[in-house]
Amino acid sequence: MGRIKPYQPVKYFVALTLAIGNNPANLYGDLEKLFSTIDTKSEMFDFDRFTSYYQSEMGKSLQKRIISFETLLPAEQLPVIKTATNEIEENFLSGGKRTVNIDPGYLTAARMVLATTKDFDHRIYLGMGIFGDVHYRYRNGHFRINEWTYPDYQQEKIIHYFEELRTLYMEQLKTLNADSLKKEES
Fold first, then answer.
1. 166 Cα distance to chain centroid
2. Which one of 23, 31, 93, 184 is most buried, by most CB atoms within 10 A?
């Protein structure tokens, strides 16, 4: 029989897709209240190069950026977080349509998981109408894509961003575990 162990906290991030004229900084305060202080930001990139999925609702010339948060949190909070980011999106509706899309996820030493409301054969139900989608797997020193990984996440610069984020996460875990050990010893 396997022994049940506590799961290490994870590194949360959000992918922000923004309609033209939206400044991502307008969202930072709400996101920091939900997560914690922002500690990394990817470069903005042209999202229209990868899909037209959101254009009927959000228009053309969409921009995307990924940001991460300093405080490590439990992985099991992902459904609650996805629900909360959907509520933040509602604050930025214009004429009943979204002007911003917020996709939360988390990173561990072994994988990157995105939250979604859409069921599919490779997604695991997490509760509250939310599914987890393993977008990257860490193998041989690099994140590897899956056949279902979204095209914008297949960019080298985005994979590199997540590999750097993993390095930061591993440093944070090391510090967290060292601090926990010191508390146990005292």
1. 12
2. 31
- C-alpha distances in Å from residue 7, one per residue of 73, 76, 173, 179: 10, 10, 12, 17
Helix/strand/coil percentages in the chain, nearest 5: 35, 30, 35
Residues 6+ apart with CB under 8 A from 132: 78, 113, 114, 115, 116, 123, 124, 126
Residues 19-75: tens digit of each pLDDT: 988 889 999 999 999 999 999 999 999 999 999 999 999 999 999 999 999 999 999
Helices (H), the chain: 25-34, 55-58, 78-90, 156-185
CB atoms within 10 A of CB 46: 11
* Three-class DSSP category at 85: helix
Q: What is the pTM of this model?
A: 0.94
Which residues are within 8 A (CB) of 38 and not within 5 positions of it... i.e. 6 or more apart? 28, 31, 32, 67, 68, 69, 70
What's the angle, vertex CA 43, arms to CA 10 and CA 25, rounded to 5? 80
Q: Counting Cβ atoms within 10 Å, is residue 90 exposed (0-12), middle (13-18) or buried (19+)?
A: exposed
Burial class from Cβ neighbours inside 10 Å (0-12, 13-18, 19+) for residue 130 reads buried
CA torsion through residues 35, 36, 38, 39, sign = negative
